[in-house]
């Protein structure tokens, strides 16, 4: 399906993105992702407006490496003034897009009127989007669910999209599950509510002028291609993190261009200078390398690689030697090359 957002410079990058995930899509994970894909749009973890406006140092919440572009900052909040101020700060910091979280189901964020609970308040989301768009020139997008609790997946979702689109939002990434804020934990909300891909497909059909992306339960590039016949973009979450080698096939399969990594070992070696730089900055080895633990999933020696990093990366003074030793435990000749399906 062709994108309908015309002059949006991020339209091509949005074709595939890695979902924002708390504690997972850190700056280190995103830098590693760039050894696997040049094209995909990367997202930060959700950052609350309070953290940006009152946290210190701001670098802790907004810092990133230039290699991460194109990159979007996901914001959590509901106050239009605060969100507009944070969007302006994101633009100053060089982010390519700012995204409003209307999908997180955790109790903590609900209590602060953040995340999926906002689906019950489309007027608040519309006011926030309007204020953010007035404050910045970069795109303002929304990530939401198909509904919450007892909402009607058809009428209520259409009403939400219409009201927020009228405020100027042209890009929606829709997690194809409801969020049950009463009765299910955040973890259960990732799996128990049934996926309803056809509902997102119908949304795109009914609003062809909008960019509609889909998220939830997608695990292969073949699935991504099938979804792209119905919607404008695909966002992949846990699978892209737990099986990062998936990203190595994205550029060829979905953009028609060769990716940067020809093998898992090549990606690991390409990431080595970044690790060295982070160690010089005072980061602990395991804080950086934890994002690579799934790189050799299913490969001979992959379990030994994970174990060596897990058992030694946290020790005081752990250095690149630990990383190199872990890598040596995986026979390079056995590691499969890039997959595009």
UniProtKB/TrEMBL annotation:
Q: Which GO molecular function entries does the Swiss-Prot or TrEMBL record give?
A: flavin adenine dinucleotide binding; FMN binding; tRNA binding; tRNA-dihydrouridine20 synthase activity
| EC number of this enzyme | 1.3.1.91
The record, for HAMAP family, names:
DusA_subfam
Pfam families cross-referenced by the UniProt entry: Dus
Which PANTHER family does this entry report, sorted A to Z? FMN-LINKED OXIDOREDUCTASES SUPERFAMILY PROTEIN
Name the reaction it catalyses: 5,6-dihydrouridine(20a) in tRNA + NADP(+) = uridine(20a) in tRNA + NADPH + H(+); 5,6-dihydrouridine(20a) in tRNA + NAD(+) = uridine(20a) in tRNA + NADH + H(+); 5,6-dihydrouridine(20) in tRNA + NADP(+) = uridine(20) in tRNA + NADPH + H(+); 5,6-dihydrouridine(20) in tRNA + NAD(+) = uridine(20) in tRNA + NADH + H(+)
What residues form the catalytic site here? Answer: 104
Q: Which family does it belong to?
A: Belongs to the Dus family. DusA subfamily.
Domain called DUS-like FMN-binding: residue spans: 18-318
The family database entries (NCBIfam families) matched by this protein are listed as: PRK11815.1 (NF008774), yjbN (TIGR00742)
What is the official name of this protein in its record? tRNA-dihydrouridine(20/20a) synthase
Keyword Oxidoreductase on this protein? yes
Q: Please state the gene responsible for encoding this protein.
A: dusA
Q: Which UniProt keywords are listed? A: Flavoprotein, FMN, NADP, Nucleotide-binding, Oxidoreductase, RNA-binding, tRNA processing, tRNA-binding
Class of the enzyme per the UniProt entry, highest EC level: oxidoreductase
Q: Which cofactor does it need?
A: FMN
Q: What is the protein's known function?
A: Catalyzes the synthesis of 5,6-dihydrouridine (D), a modified base found in the D-loop of most tRNAs, via the reduction of the C5-C6 double bond in target uridines. Specifically modifies U20 and U20a in tRNAs.
User: For site (Interacts with tRNA), what residue positions does UniProt give?
Assistant: 101, 187, 190, 303, 306
